[in-house]
Amino acid sequence: MVAETLVGRDEELAVVDAFLARRAEGPTVLVLEDDAGIGKTSIWQEAVERADANGLRVLSCRPAEAESKLAFSGLADLCETVPGAVFEHLPAPQSRALQIALLRADPEDAAPDPRAVAAGFRSLLVGLGSATLVAIDDLQWLDASSAAAVGFAMRREPVLLLVTRRKGRPVVADLEQAVSGAKRIELGPFSVAATHELLLRRLGQSLPRPLLVRVNETAGGNPFYALELARQVMEGGVSAGDPLPVPEDLRELLMRRVRRLSPGARELLLAAAAVGRPTRTLLGAAISGELPAGLEEAESAGILEGRGPRVFFTHPLYAATVYASAPRELRRRLHERLAEVVEDDEERARHLALASDSPSEDVAAALEQAAWRARARGAPAAAAELLELAIGLTPAGEQAALRRRKVAAADDHFSAGAVEEGVRLLENLLSESSAGDERAEVLLRLAEASDDLSAKLELLEQALQERITDQRVLSRIHVRLSQGWPLLGMGYGLEHGSIALHHAELSGERRLIVRALSRLALWELWAGRSPSRSVMRAVELEEPGDSLRGYDNPRLALAMWRMYQGRLDEARTLFEEALTEVAGDEFASVAVRARLVDVAVRSGDWRLAEAEADSVCELVEQIGTKHDGGFTLYLKALVQAQLGRIEDARAIAEAGARFAREAGQDNSLVMNLGVLGFVELSLGRDTEALPHLQPLLDWIDEKGLGLSTHPVVPFAIEALVAVGRLDAARALVDRFSAEAQAIDSPWALALACRCQALLASVEGDLPRALAALDSSLAHHAQGRWPFEHARTLLLGGRVQRRAKQKAAARHALEQALAIFEALPAPLWADRAREEIARLGARPSRRTDLTETERRVAELAASGLKNREVAAQLFLSPKTVEANLARVYRKLGIHSRAELGARLAGGRRKARQV
Length: 913
Description:
Layout: H1 10-20, E1 29-34, H2 40-53, E2 57-61, H3 73-78, H4 84-88, H5 92-101, H6 114-128, E3 132-136, H7 144-154, E4 160-166, H8 173-178, E5 183-186, H9 192-203, H10 209-218, H11 223-236, H12 248-259, H13 263-274, H14 280-286, H15 291-300, E6 304-307, E7 310-313, H16 316-325, H17 328-341, H18 345-355, H19 361-376, H20 380-393, H21 399-416, H22 419-430, H23 437-449, H24 453-464, H25 471-482, H26 485-488, H27 490-507, H28 510-526, H29 532-541, H30 554-565, H31 568-581, H32 586-602, H33 606-623, H34 631-642, H35 646-663, H36 666-682, H37 690-703, H38 713-722, H39 726-742, H40 746-762, H41 766-780, H42 786-802, H43 806-822, H44 826-840, H45 851-861, H46 866-873, H47 877-891, H48 896-912
Parallel strand pairs: 1-4, 1-5, 2-3, 3-4
Antiparallel strand pairs: 6-7
Helix pairs in contact: 1-2, 5-6, 6-7, 9-11, 10-11, 12-16, 13-15, 13-16, 17-18, 18-19, 19-20, 20-21, 21-22, 22-23, 23-24, 23-25, 24-25, 25-27, 25-28, 27-28, 28-29, 28-30, 29-30, 30-31, 31-32, 32-33, 32-34, 33-34, 34-35, 34-36, 35-36, 36-37, 37-38, 38-39, 38-40, 39-40, 40-41, 40-42, 41-42, 42-43, ...
């Protein structure tokens, strides 16, 4: 298990595990190297713990710089835990030399020969055996004498050597030679996700995603620096345009080197820190001195490096430190000069803002234009920051411009995941807004930002109380009101969706009509109605450049329809296009990426689905789980259940249900509960599935939803059949089938026909069951849905076996088994194997029970009624009665009361034998 505070290093730890396992073709030396604070020691400590847990003897030391001149200090630490008996078995000269070096014996005449010490250490390792790990943290600080002894021994004995070292720091030549052919791991920077997890574990909280990205970039992915930066940010707060606060201790450490440089070199450093992409040309134009001299000096100090025309800081923290340490007036004058020489409009606007010491509409307008460009290239966080700067520089008399910039900045904050920042701006704007359209617009935007559906609807109703004359605002309000269907039912959603379309038509704004049609198409689809007219009209009206995102995008509505129809290749292409269009919008991307997981699940690409589900769940965690309501956890849990990882599936589904309850997302709640029901079905405990699946059926009825778009519905129908509620199951199957036809879905029709076959088989009508199965397979031929196809074949094999069509049954079951194994779906593969085994079962004696008789007897003995036993085993009640009659006759009993005792006695005899 990964150490509690060790995050973001799964790949490195996998290499460590392979190294410790001593694979024959693997290396015996592993080097972890990179810059200070990158996390080498954490991985080293975890490796040492794993080695100890795996039965390796560990000799370890962690030298410090202060000890680097103390002879054999490192070797003494390495040998500290070695039992004295091991020394006694060494050759006498080696034992004496080594023990003197380790201060375990007094020198008699002269210091021991270093070669004898090295040879003694080598012999010591031989005595300990090859299952030994020598582990050294911060190799560059290991004293020379110890390094020579270790190097000598390691070149000659195949024990494992694990070291960390600071990149670019030299070590003693003997040891350098020993590690020259080592397996090396350059740790590299932390990802944003890893830094997020680190902050959660170490500080108990993380940062809003845009600020998290800034901290991670400024720290260069260095977890130590990121942690210190985050602490300062959390303690002091950061406003748009402010430099990130660099902790005083780190700043002082880095500034010591900077202060040694000449004034010209320091001016160069400040200029390089103030621009986004410093080049020789730009810096030459920005500073007053000669560029070559200052650059050469900074490069010699290890602070800057030139690569062709570009100039880079050797670590981003140098840039932050240099900039934060410079006086405000000096920075202002520098930005003034840079604004005159930079070519990029966005960067020029930033420099103008940072050079301004009073409001300026010209500068604010330049910033607003730059924000528009940043947004257009998918950078809403950058756009929001530019607009915040523009707001601060807008003169008092420019109220219309100020309002426009605040609204736009709020939108960009929301797109970037900084919800609190956006709400702050809007709440401030609400107090400044006039009654009517203006105030209604702000209330609408606050509603759009809320993750509490009740609060959202309350804000929208409040907006409707304003005297609104703008049809566009009315349409948008009703679109958002239509999203209240999870609380108030799909009838409510369809009503407001239609009103939203009406106002959009009155406004004459094509883009707004497209948006209203897209939403209405989704509500129609989820109500079990055909969305064809709405969605196809929306797609036809859409024009390039509309930039409609999320479910406002008609092609996303079309993608959803295609997915529910089982036209998965088309759906995947449309979702991928939509994902490209929402680049930079974290909220919108979650919805699209979740649907790509859904497509992968349905198409049987379960390994891909697992990877994609992990990725999108990680993003949701960074944004805040309430914004997703547990839906992505449902998908992740479903994949785990299908892969047969029952405990993981249960844990994830329960977490998803918990988040759904907290967010008030009943749809996600019942879907996560549905996974728990699917787990029971997978384990063959069909009667135990219904308590988990009944909430889905209740919710669908309560909200007026359709059945054909819920993948969990067929599970619920199977559970109803299992407990003998056949009338309820039949009504659902009929409705499911009708809706499947309405939305023209071969996928749903295939499942509906399979459910019809299940019902017919339980009722004993095998010809009707077989006909329904043929129809189901015909629908399956129209798409690739391997898991559902295999489940249809599995049921077909059962029914064919009962119909005495053993050859056909075996063929169907073997097909099902092959698909289940390929997915892989191990639990369902086991069920297919059980059915195949039944085909070969033959009673050897008259008193032996057949496999079917045995299962009927066991279920009857457990207290189930004949009807319940029939549902569990996909038999008719009459077949159960006939089997029980044969069981009684073979066992010589006359009642169920005797059945349990006789079966228990038979099991005891079997164990004795």
